[in-house]
Amino acid sequence: AMASREAVRRTVQSVRPILSVDREEARKRVLNLYKAWYRQIPYIVMDYDIPKSVEQCREKLREEFLKHKHVNDIRVIDMLVIKGQMELKESVEIWKQKGHIMRYWKESQEPKPTDFLSKFLSGQS
Q1: CA-CA-CA-CA torsion for 53, 27, 87, 57, nearest 10 degrees?
Q2: Can you give the pTM of this predicted structure?
Q3: What is the C-alpha to C-alpha distance for residues 17 and 13, in angstroms, rounded to an integer?
Q4: Which of 16, 37, 40, 73 is the most buried (most CB within 10 A)?
Q5: Contact 41, 58 (CB under 8 A)
Q6: What is the pLDDT of residues 16-70, one digit of tens each?
Q7: Where is the Complex 1 LYR protein domain positioned along the sequence (predicted)?
């Protein structure tokens, strides 16, 4: 009985939220991350010599955050925040390459070639 109680306690512990206690706390973490990115964008644009304006980058930031607005699970929100914090640190510390930053524009602006010749010319063959 003691062993099964211990197993239940461990399981309950593992299901607890990573960081946030409730949705409001998770929301604050998301907003703080958004603000941190928002403030860093001018430096990221400069450091990586990105061919986009600060405004375009901030619009992309907003778009990236809005992609996840439907997420309701606090643990998933916390994981996304942790990933976002890691991305921000990597960007600020210039551990990324310009291509990593520019990848955010890939899906939304450049449709992937579908026919053979276009694929071949873009090096996807």
Answers
A1: -10
A2: 0.70
A3: 9
A4: 37
A5: yes
A6: 556 888 999 999 999 999 999 999 999 999 999 999 999 999 999 999 999 999 9
A7: 29-90
